[in-house]
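Handover notes (outgoing to incoming on-call)

Open items:
1. dTDP-4-dehydrorhamnose 3,5-epimerase: sequence verified, structure written out, both below. Nothing else pending on this one.
2. Nothing else urgent.
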Amino acid sequence: MGQIKVEKNVGGIEGLCIITPAVHGDNRGYFMETYSRRDMEEAGIDITFVQDNQSMSTKGVLRGLHFQKQYPQTKLVRVIKGAVYDVAVDLRKDSKTYGKWYGVELTEGNKKQFLIPRGFAHGFLVRSETAEFCYKCDDFYHPNDEGGLAWNDPEIAVEWGICGDYHGSACAEGYTLPDGTPLNLSEKDQKWLGLSHTFKF
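dTDP-4-dehydrorhamnose 3,5-epimerase structure tokens:
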């Protein structure tokens, strides 16, 4: 396991892992392995990924909190440009940490990766001017299987670092980043409900 460092069960939530790759740099730049199945298996993580995705978002965009209901996905996420605050929420009904969340800053500088198992809602907030976000999935995207959780559900109380008062829904109106950048959510992400009305795995 020479090329990665794995921190398991972060935040006391079983299955969540922070993976930090070894970065080999000199005056020319750097090189790193962004994924090695061998290293993952040596770390006790046996996952077969089938799809890679990439997105670009601007500052203030919050994508989430998303999951697939009948075809849940394990995700290995990272940022290749900019910075995001990445969050996972445990929705496994038999889990000791059901409803608990954990967040980590992912940046092009720290090169950390966040492994999120099946049974979690996932989302991220863009803190830089733009961010390019990449992730591997162990199942394909199924457009009619989408589920979601309100990003600002007070029962979960994710600490996004966003300014504004909760007004009973996931609507982005009235919320900003500390520098005044308006929060930007899709129309769909402003309609998700809270934990008590959300799908359980």
